[in-house]
Amino acid sequence: MAIALILHRVADYDAWRKVYDSVADMQKDGGVTKESVHRMADDPDNVLVIHEFESVAAAKAFFAGANLKDAMQRGGVQGEPRIELFE
To answer: CA dist 9 to 2, 28, 58, 68, 73, Å?
Structure first.
């Protein structure tokens, strides 16, 4: 099993969340087996997403996908997300 921690700032959490929720099938097809979303207590546009995968290889393939990058752009992700993988 692998866990991915994704930390990024968004322009507007509510707008981002609509896009995030709309790509649930893409996440499932990309190997995400479990997910959760968290907002920083003092900065609600600073978001932590936790995804679980069967393997690190599956996680790397998911994060390399063009569809994910497009969804992040549509959701208003600002700058490059910080992505950490753990086994």
So the answer is: 23, 23, 24, 16, 12
CATH code of domain 2-86: 3.30.70.100
| CA distance readout (Å), 7 to 29, 45, 67, 83 | 22, 11, 18, 7
DSSP-assigned beta bridge partners for residue 43: 40
pLDDT, tens only, 51-81:
999 999 999 999 998 889 999 999 999 999 9
Q: What are the sequence ranges of the domains in the chain? A: 2-86
